[in-house]
């Protein structure tokens, strides 16, 4: 099992290096086409959203809905709907999660 994990890490490292090196070699110093540039700009927020959803819903190797999920959802709603700061959203998410865990 441990060997498999390390080979996975090595494989991901090699693929990442190849992907990062592929762009400059293919483009040769030219600018990206505007359509491709717009897509690349959207990739970071999409990846961040995927990481947040996975973090909020994953419990080991299965999906799980619980107090922490509700807390993240409420904190995100506060952040988006009220345009409050990130600290406010984190505090709301923490308070909601703690409150639900206290209730059982």
Write the layout of secondary structure elements.
Blueprint lengths: L1 H26 L6 H24 E2 L2 E2 L3 H16 L3 H18 L1
Helix pairs in contact: 3-4
Descriptive account of the structure:
The protein has 104 residues and is mainly α. It has a domain of 30 residues. It contains four helices and two strands, in the order ααββαα. It has a two-stranded antiparallel ribbon. α3 packs antiparallel against α4. The protein is flat, with a radius of gyration of 20 Å. It starts with a helix and ends with a helix.
How do the helices and strands follow one another from N- to C-terminus?
Answer: HHEEHH
- Structural class based on helices, strands and sheet pairing: mainly alpha
Tell me, briefly, the overall form.
flat
Quick one: how many beta strands? 2
Going across the biggest sheet, name each strand in turn.
1-2
Low-confidence segments, given as residue ranges, are none
Provide the β-strand percentage band: under 5%
- What share of the residues lie within helices? over 70%
| Major sheet summary line | 2 strands, antiparallel
Q: Tell me, rounded to a whole number, the average pLDDT.
A: 87
Q: What is the tally of helical segments?
A: 4
Q: How far apart are the termini?
A: 37 Å
Radius of gyration: 20 Å
List keywords for this structure.
2 strands, 104 residues, mainly alpha, two-stranded antiparallel ribbon, 81% helix, single chain
């Amino acid at each position: 099992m441990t060997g498999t994990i390390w080979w996975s890490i090595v494989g991901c490292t090699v693929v990442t290096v190849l992907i990062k090196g592929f762009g400059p070699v293919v483009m040769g110093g030219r600018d990206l086409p505007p359509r491709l540039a717009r897509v690349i700009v959207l990739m970071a927020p999409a990846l961040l959203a995927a990481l947040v959803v996975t973090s909020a819903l994953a419990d080991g190797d299965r999906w799980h809905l619980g107090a922490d999920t509700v807390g993240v959802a409420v904190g995100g709603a506060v952040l988006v709907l009220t345009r409050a700061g990130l600290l406010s959203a984190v505090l709301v998410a923490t308070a909601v999660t703690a409150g639900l865990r206290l209730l059982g």
